[in-house]
Amino acid sequence: MTWQEPANEGSAITGYTVSLAGGQTREVGGAERSVTFDGLTNGRTYSVTVTAHNNAEQPSGPSPATQVVPYGPPDAPVVTDVTSTGGAGDHASVHVAWTLGRDNGRAFTTATVAVGTVSTTVPATDGSVDLSVPVADTQARVTVQVCTQAGDCATSPERWVHVVSAPPVPDGTLGVAPTGSYGTLKVSGVSRAAGGGYGLSSLFLEYCVDAGSWKDLPGDGVVNVGTNAPVSLSVRQRGVNAQGVTAYSTVLGPVTASAQSTPSRPDISVTKVTSTSVQFSWSVPEASSPAATASVAVDGQSVATNQAETGAYTATGLEPGKDHVITLTLTNSLGSQQASTTTTTLPALTLAPETCQGDEAGAGADCRTYSVTPSSWPTSLGQMTCTFSTDLPGVPPVGATLRDATRRRSGIAVTYTSQDELTEHADELVSCTG
Predict the structure, then answer these.
(1) DSSP character for 76?
(2) What value, to the nearest 5°, has the Cα angle with vertex 116 and ends 128 and 112?
(3) Among 159, 161, 144, 160, which residue's Cα sits nearest to residue 75?
(4) Could you give the maximum distance between any two Cα atoms of the chain, in Å?
(5) CB-based burial, 256-279: b 16+ in 10 Å, e otherwise
(6) Which of 60, 88, 175, 298 has the smallest CB count inside 10 Å?
């Protein structure tokens, strides 16, 4: 504890009383400017005051209390775990963990962890760190030095670790090629390579796709990458030493490749049917590579070629009321796939002039209407939903459901009076779907 001489008010300072909270005091002469208290507890806060005395025997009041915290070097840390967890290439990973002792009055700042020729500095309170250590450091000395805010440091007792070496790179040259099946590639040209203390029985080949997770390489080398898009594939060797510690070789690759496949069997969906046309679309569960082209045949006759692998088409000019076979063929350089479906066109409808009964939509004086009669009724046709319209302004269409070939009155008035007029305007008046 140090202080400065106060004003003496005309009488020389003869001594000082230094008081430490807790009962300790020191009496020193007037020429002294410092005092030392021993036996205190590091890290504990103490209050100190100084009172001056002169020849007039009129002591000064005590100085303002000063807070002090004694400190000393920290306790040495204890290394609780040193484990070599394997590695890759010419380096291995070593895990070091430690616990802190008392800081003895000043907070811990850093911990310098040394494993053989490698060291790193981290916050002391981290408690653990992983270091990449050259496998050349077969037996490595391990220490942890911790320091405090006061600049004092302490080093742990040394430990030793056996650094696990990595297995060698797999033998051969990595090759990756399509198998002809969707999303699969075949890895070839590489094999396990013994060395570095690893026998073949403790070595395993692994592969990785697009920097994803590593997986064991199957014995036949065929891996499922789940897509025909280009991917990057790498291979490495995993070794397990006699202590059960795993390490990895340097990676071979990546090699970029694309899976290829014959077309998938297409799914055909009929979306609309009229008396003379069929509208349909097709899709595939998985796109082929190379991309396939589609050709369309109706009743054995080609109607379209060079269509997209997924698409739609409308076949026209079909015979009404008949079953029609739609065949779709997908082809690429690896093969082809075909699918067929049968659909029935709607029967042709005959419109005939009729005299109104008075309940028709838009009925008025000299009212005329028309009837609708299907030309046939295919057994595969359940029903038709039709809309009957008029040429009269402002009269909305009438809906109806046909379930057989029976003549059906339209229920809506028109101005047309002759068969020829109704035939000419049939497509405008009647619209049906099945």
Answers:
(1) P
(2) 40
(3) 144
(4) 146
(5) ebbbbbbbbebebeeeebbbeebb
(6) 175
